[in-house]
Amino acid sequence: MIQVEHITKIYDGQRALDDVSFTAKEGEVVGLLGPNGAGKSTLMKILTCYIPPTEGEASVCGHSIYEEPLAVRREIGYLPEHNPLYTDMYVREFLRFAAGVYGMKHCNDRVEDMIKLVGLTPESNKRIGQLSKGYRQRVGLAQALIHDPKVLILDEPTTGLDPNQLEEIRAVIKNAGRDKVVLLSTHIMQEVEAMCSRAIIINHGRIVSDDHLGHITSQQLTEKFHNLTL
Ligand code: ADP
Ligand code: MG
């Protein structure tokens, strides 16, 4: 579970997040939808304890970002926007290393399962540096899932994927949401419809709407999103 209470982030006088509050529970795939610069990545970096907020409180699975950052990180699988991967490493070597970071032993079967799950099998004998952007993104997703976290935080997870890769990865993300909380960011409306059960629209650091997709039509959501730029 993710709990965000009155989070504000100010960078050098600029308000990137302004009094943001929401909660998300297991089984939800929450799309954080907003234009570039809305504050999506900032919120994700706060939840993953990479940067502190200026004000407010947040917790992940009951662990406060201030008091128990290590526990917070253990609960989360995180795919950052610009994912720094070790380009010299082979795919399997890297995923075993990632598992090791979480203290997982005998992780070979788990690594093979993740390779299959994200569709990396045909490229799995390569070094990361030899992979296309789409396949690197799959490595990032496999890394985020390796320790079977309760919470997945995915910053623009489908950028760089070509159209025929999209469907496969969207299905992986949607499935992951069955027994996890997924928070993913995107600036593309269709992504939310394809993967999410809930859409939180964020603009200039503020939540401007928060809807369950069963309760709002795709046209209403599109209108809300387009109204931001007016
Ligand atoms: P999004 O992910 O929605 O595109 P970001 O969270 O990256 O938005 O950025 C929100 C705002 O905060 C932007 O105006 C951005 O320029 C600014 N910003 C982000 N990171 C920093 C930083 N480290 N220092 C100063 N300003 C930043
Ligand atoms: Mg971003």
Explain what you see.
By secondary structure, this protein is of the alpha/beta class. The protein has 8 helices and 10 strands. It has helices at 40-47, 69-75, 91-101, 108-117, 133-145, 163-176, 189-195, 218-227, and strands at 2-11, 14-24, 29-33, 55-60, 63-64, 76-79, 151-155, 181-186, 198-203, 206-212. The strands form 2 sheets. A 6-stranded mixed β-sheet has the order 6-7-8-3-9-10, sandwiched between helices. Strand 7 (151-155), helix 6 (163-176) and strand 8 (181-186) form a beta-alpha-beta unit. Helix 3 packs across helix 4 and helix 4 crosses helix 5 (133-145). The longest helix is centred in the last third of the chain and has 14 residues, at 163-176. It is globular and about 45 Å long. The protein starts with a strand and ends with a helix. The model has no long low-confidence stretch (mean pLDDT 94). The structure holds adenosine-5'-diphosphate and magnesium ion.
Total number of helices = 8
What is the rounded Rg? 17 Å
Terminal residue distance: 34 Å
- Determine the strand fraction and express it as a percent band: 25-35%
Shape: globular
Q: Based on helices, strands and strand pairing, what is the structural class?
A: alpha/beta
What integer is the average pLDDT?
A: 94
Output the strand order for the largest sheet: 6-7-8-3-9-10
- Strand elements, count: 10
Low-confidence stretches: none
Largest sheet: 6 strands, mixed
Order of helical and strand elements? EEEHEEHEHHHEHEHEEH
Identify every distinct bound molecule in the structure, by name, code or SMILES. adenosine-5'-diphosphate, magnesium ion
- Give the fraction of residues assigned to helices: 25-40%
